[in-house]
Amino acid sequence: MRALKIAGIVVGGIVALVVVLLVAVVLFVDPNDYRSDIERIVESKTGRQLTLSGDLHLSIFPWLALKAGPASLGDAPGFGDEPFVSIQEARVGVRLLPLLSGKVEVGDVRLAGARIRLITDAQGRNNWADLGEQKEATTPAPADQKPMEVPTIAGLEIEDAAVTIENRQEKTRRVVRDFNLKTGRLASGEPFDLSTDFVLDQEPSLSAKVKLATKVTADLEANAHRLAKPEIDVTITGQGYPKEGIPVKIVANALSADIAKELYRLEALTVTTTWKGEGFPAAGVPVVLQAKDFNANLAAQTMELTGLALDLAGGKLSGSLTGKEILDAPALTGPLKLDQVSLRQWAPKLGVTLPATTDPKVFEKLSFSGTVSMTKSTAEVGDIVLQLDDTIAKGMLGIADFDAKALRFDLNVDRINADRYLPPPVEQPAKTATKEPPTPIPVETLRNLNARGQLQVGEAIFAGIKFTKLKLGVNARDGKVRFNPSQASMYGGNYSGDIGIDATTDVARISLDEHISGVDFAPLFKDFFETDKVSGKGTANIKLTGSGKTTDDVMKTLDGNVDFKVADGALEGTDLWYEIRRARAVLKQQAVPERTGPARTAFTALTGSGAMKNGVLSNNDLNVAMQYLKVTGQGTVDIPASTLDYKLIAAVLKIPREGADTAQMQDMVDAEIPVKITGSLTDPKVRPGLEGYLKNELKQRVDKEKGKVEEKLKDKLKDLFKR
């Protein structure tokens, strides 16, 4: 007992001595006397100038605490005169009695008015790299030395801090300002409350005010941490955003990070906002993003995102993602689906105004499903099933290289009537009707286009033309665009073509190599030219080139060759034989005959070829075979003006039996009658010229009458000599 008493007296004496010494330090030692020594030591270790402009205050009981006033640490050479770090006030304390027994209990740590500047200059150097350099070799700790016990901290408080991150090489500047943080007691493995708020400025266009509250558990020994029920409120302001800002709320069940095992997990994430700004509805666009679970294993380089759901103003998008090699060569894949929505009702909710359409019932059904695949440089959506109204498209669409913007696609469409989506026709009075302006050729867009793929359509209507089994190949790069193969079945026949566009200069050059065979022209002309004046089945070959900045320019510069052949057809609305009969009757001052059949000129064959120059086709070998006539001749077709001018010769082979004047017309057999065709392509005017025929007939009559007179004269002379 005496030994214990003596030991107690010794220990108490030692403690009393320590207390007396510490009190003596506080009473007789002023830490400000060591200000210059501290500044000199820091400068020797860092190469930076430390300035302690405020008072240093030391206290003992119950805390051994140090409080510092304003202080700053200079920046690295070449980064300006402003300090690298500056503070207005700092305070840290250690509880005295536990410290005497070897335990570290840190009191409230407070930092106010901190300013930190992180700068990368134009040469790529930064102003913090030198602080990480080792000035002296460190002596490793003995192998048998136990690691220091992790201290507890009564609380951490940061007030009015700011960090400036400036990259002068990339000319970017970000600022975290008005930063405040407060925690409860910090002890390894024990949960504590944490709240923080700050403003992030992405100069000059974006500012985000952030507020976070959560309960944190930090197991420093196991290096595993967890945020329970984190709630984040963000308000976004800046250029293009409303003055009051856009509020965004982010909540989750938990965020876990097992750094030792490199495992990370986010549970039950929900992000809600009402997005506003220029181009969006005044009430905003409601957005709800949810994710059931996100897991990342950095050691195995895998990730999984499940239960992904996006509600965008009533449009519901869902999916999931899995990934591998997410650090070295990330590859992500997963399904994506858009539930059916009425695009006509949904688009206005997103601030999108749909164009007026010929068919007001389009844009009613929209749905989508597919499989997304992404890497660092590529993105693809495969297994696409896209429905728009009555059209279903399947296939793939992707970008083969982000840097090159290389678009790739392979789509198969069952049917589409593109004309339903065109603007409705606008009727204008004849006096105010104006020609539509020419369509500019988007040279710059074509020059930047990098696309390769094919489109197949089962049934299609484009610009009034009906196609089936349409196949269109696209290959575009470096300003050269080629549509090949271009194939389709149309109007009982077939089409094939090769279309090229050279947009390497400011003036586009277009080449056409088009072929049609066995096409029924009656429905084709009715659908494309809105005329029913041509019928027959035929073939045509067109090989042309043109150049210009607009479609009109191209039409006016078309050069090349054309040939065509049409069988068993007719020019509807024009009866050439009747026009010949009528003209003959007028010139002979006879009664105009009545038409006995429909106004049409039937033919068994129509052939021709020609050369096109500056959009005008010169055709010198037109040949039309008909039952009663054979027509040959030459003329021109002006494509830009949609007019024609032909001079033909109609040789009468025989006289039709139909008609009351058939017998009177027999004198026309073997006659060659000039015919002139002029006017528009859709409404040509046919004018036969019988003047030559009548002059020849008159000459024959004169010669005949002259012969009769001569005979009579001879007879009279004979009678005279007989007398």
TrEMBL record:
Transmembrane segments: 7-29
Pfam families per the UniProt record, alphabetical: AsmA
Keyword Transmembrane helix belongs to the record: yes
Domain AsmA as annotated: residue spans: 2-622
Transmembrane helix in keyword set: yes
Keywords: Membrane, Transmembrane, Transmembrane helix
Region Disordered: start-end pairs: 422-441
Designated name of the protein: AsmA family protein
Organism: Steroidobacter flavus
Organism classification: Bacteria, Pseudomonadati, Pseudomonadota, Gammaproteobacteria, Steroidobacterales
